[in-house]
Amino acid sequence: MSINAKQAAKVAKLARIHVERSELPALAEDFNAILDFIEQLGEVDVENAEPMTSVTPMRLKRRDDKVTDGGRQGEILSNAPDAREGFFAVPKVVE
Amino acid sequence: MSDLNRLTITAARDLLRKGETTSEEITVSCLSAIESAAHLNAVVHQTRDLAIRQARDADSRIRSGRAPSMCGMPIGVKDLFCTRNVASQAGSAILDDFIPEYESTVTAKLFEAGAVMVGKLNMDEFAMGSSNETSIYGNVVNPWKSNDDGPDLTPGGSSGGSAAAVAADLCIAATGTDTGGSIRQPAAFTGITGIKPTYGRCSRWGIIAFASSLDQAGPMTKSVRDAAIMLESMCGHDSKDSTSADLPVPCFEYMLTGDIRGKVIGVPREYRMDGMPDEIESLWRDGMDMLKNAGADIRDISLPHARYALPAYYVIAPAEASSNLARYDGVRYGRRSRLDKGEGITEMYEKTRAEGFGAEVKRRIMIGTYVLSAGYYDAYYNRARKVRTLIKSDFDAAFSEGVDSILTPTTPSAAFELGRNAHDPVEMYLNDIFTVTVNLAGLPAISIPAGLNRHGLPLGLQLIGRPWEEGDLLNTAHALENAVGFVAKPHKWW
Asked: N or C: which end of chain B has fewer CB within 10 A?
């Protein structure tokens, strides 16, 4: 499988990373080198293997469904690039 | 007393308990070593005031006579750990000016035990790299060189700052994290000891995530005994990490008897690669002989899927990274790009991430996005997860046949020149060929310095243990360490 500049642009869009048009061919080339390397996985017989979900088999812990933390608005907003009146502020989303 | 920064945890503990020195004295000695090591670029945020305050607190605890082993030890902390009120940016521009309001569980445990933080340590951006060349802070320089006029070498990565800081005696020990070899490979390149415990031993809470099913924290130290002491204080169940194991943590140090008679050490034949350098081959053979002389039984084993570990890793780790790093969107923390007139929220995401992430991080996010995208999910991601199952069952089979631990080289070479592999991602990935299988299988593994190559650079051997058997693994490593008798240190040229 091989990626061209157009497909590379699509991946960049999905990843929400702006890539200049002039950089797309080089990016596609990088992808192809890595994908060629990954391609080796095609040699493995995986017929009887289940995809791994957890490397150490354990039952997830449960706890009572009640509020245990909160009231930290100031701490949560303290690193925001733009916080106003107790909220995160972003450019207009809806016209 | 001079050169207190050169102490091990074990030696410092003895002196502190006897009242022959203070934590403040050792801390000041480390802080001045840091001042004179700017060329190495290992320490990126100094925390002098905090360190002095913590050292004084530790001294009063030590005087009261009830101090744990880590009490008063000046350590460096990898920039990946969130530390309260201290910059934590994972070596990335996207976390410029990020000051956590909380403390990672691992650093909180170390501080409760009395450890002193002298600074945050350089690393590859988001722990993605094997040479510490992807950091926004610039390259870390290895304190080891083949000769004084020789070129600067990489300390390895991603915990390159931690490795260089410990090797250059800028701190007594350091924290690292290991997703594909990021503790063990730099430990090998700098002649120190580094252990990655079993997945689930150390809480991941507060450690900036790279690939959540692979990431584990661990100590980087000057000896195996130091690793045992520090690891114990980092481990333990944490309800804030759902993959944290609710198992008792044994006293690892008590398990260091040095007696490995009757232990079965597996040597995987698939690790004998074509073109393996002679110096690595003979280091490995010497390691086998030493363990045999110490009474262990060396056994040839097979891990048939080991050769697929690296390609499986380069699907799984980027896939997890692409979803973990989706949180850097310029909204809640970190950097936000300046927008031009008429640009909206999508442009804000795309520009912020384009400007904030470095080339290798972007590459991995996009590879991860690709292997998870519609039409490729089964062909790449699910196939890699199936291969991961097979890799783990190879180890399970070896352990069920009575193997106690597995001996391999840590890296395929000694430290290389900075810049040498920087332009070929796949060539760089090959650094992790011996270490990455362990992360995929969730196993504990340790690298210890085992010799010098013909250019006088350190080389490491890796021992891989059974899950949750860090104590036994450390004991085997201790026996090997005794047999090797590695004492070389880089001389101070920086």
From this structure: N
